[in-house]
Amino acid sequence: MTAEDLAWRPVVAVTNAVERLALRHQLLSQLLLVNALEPLRWGVSRHRAAALARRARKRVPAYRDHYRQSQRDDFRASSWDRVPVTDKESFVKRHRIEDRCWGGSLPTMGVTVDESSGSTGAPTNWVRGWDERLDTKQLLQLSFSATFGREPIFAINAFVLGAWATGMIVSQSIGELCVLKSTGSDAKKILSTMTAFGPGYHYVILGYPPFLKSLVDDHDFDWDGYTVDAIYGGEAITDQMRAHLSKTFGRVIGSYGASDLEINIAYENEFTIALREAVASDEHLRRELVKDFGSLPSIFQYNPLDYYIESNERNELLFSLNRPSNIAPKIRYNIHDVGHTMRYRDAIAAIERAGRCDLIEGLRARGVRMLSLPLLFHYGRSDLSVSFFGTTVSPDGIRQALHAIPAIDRSIESFQAFNAENENDDALLVIGVELAAGHDKSAFDVFDIQSRFATELGKIDGDFATVYSTAPEDQRPEVRLYEYRTGPFRDGHTKIKHSYVAGVIEYDDIPA
Question: How is domain 128-381 classified at the architecture level of CATH?
Answer without folding.
Answer: 3-Layer(aba) Sandwich (3.40)
